[in-house]
Fold:
Amino acid sequence: MGPVLLPDIARLLGHFRVRVIPVIDQNGDPSVDAYQIPDRMRMALQLREDTSVFPYSSRRSWSCDLDHTEPFQFGRPGSPRPPGQTRVSNLGPLSRREHRAKTAGVWKVRQPVQGLYVWTSPTGQRFAVVNGHTHRLPDVQNSDRMETAA
Structure:
């Protein structure tokens, strides 16, 4: 369509209340070398994940913490921290309670590919969360037994 003038948009919408926001590329995997998450990266993740990525959660991502799937490694004196730890493929929205359960090690999560979260509960139950949907996976104990029997 190309550039459009504000009066043309107002005529189309029926009002002049228009907010212009930058385009966010969902195909990339931008990263920064800091613990804090930049606003553009936060918005990109919240647009991709409408809800918390915890199994069966329906909490809206806009009210969630953004958590590093692989824990952020802070640098030690004389040893720099690894670069690019804060990136869209290493983040996921979690409610405060879910975030604490994950951080305490009660629940474990992996993100093998961007947007797929594989959770393991304290009892060994496994869940895959993708696009806001939770799918039950074989339990860890059952997987170990099947491999041993084969």
About this structure: Helices lie at 6-13, 39-48, 96-103, 140-149. The radius of gyration is 20 Å. Strands lie at 31-32, 65-68, 86-87, 91-94, 108-113, 116-120, 126-130, 133-137.
